[in-house]
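Summary for the lay section of the report: proteins are chains of building blocks that fold into shapes. Here we show the chain for MET7A protein and then a coded description of the shape we predicted for it.
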Amino acid sequence: GASVLLLRACLALLASPIYLLSFLGVWEPFCRKVFFPFILGKICVVHDRKSKKHKQELFRNLPDFRGPSGELRLLEIGTGGGSNFQFYPPGCKVTCTDIDPNFQESLSRNMKKNQHLHYERFLVAAGEDLSQVPSGSVDAVVCTLVLCSVHSVSSTLREVLRVLRPGGAFYFLEHVAAEHSSWKYFWQQVCYPTWKLVFAGCCLTRELWKNLEEAKFSELKIQHISVALPCMPIEPHIVGYGVK
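The coded shape description reads as follows.
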């Protein structure tokens, strides 16, 4: 514990300009509008390359969840720049949501690259409040690298279950806490406060599989995997889907 606190203090000292900007109320709006969309775009390029096989396998059975009409209505929480579009089946009707509207440039680029999809609308909404989406109106909900930064995981999962039709599926791929006895978890603890500030509320030590197990899915498939990114404490991931 003392080692963690000491190293946290050293890291905070290195990041002191950001802490000062945060104290002055400058960092958060700058982060949301400029820094986070820029840096996330860079990280996603690497992450997408490392996780491509996992995503291909994850989304392989998406067509099985088409509604009675034969259409697949999909809602993505935290769409960001739209890096998942390439994995969705042709003709899929996609509703994009994100709490941050500042991803529009990269989102537009990915929409043009993936014209096999039908884009319904873009909603500025948090995962905990999808009130603009009617209950039971979508066949699938997708959430990748988002549950780490929502204010309430349980509230977000309740909204997921609300908007899904019975028999619909929730797909996820998220970084999570490492084993508590590992060095990876030690460094996650060290980086936690500064990482959360720099990366717009991203939490390194959430045990998201527990939240998913507590949610009321009739069927739940979870796999623990590793997605190693250079010099970043987010290697442990979970991937899978739950059925309402």
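Put simply, here is one thing we learned. The first strand starts at residue 73 and ends at 77.
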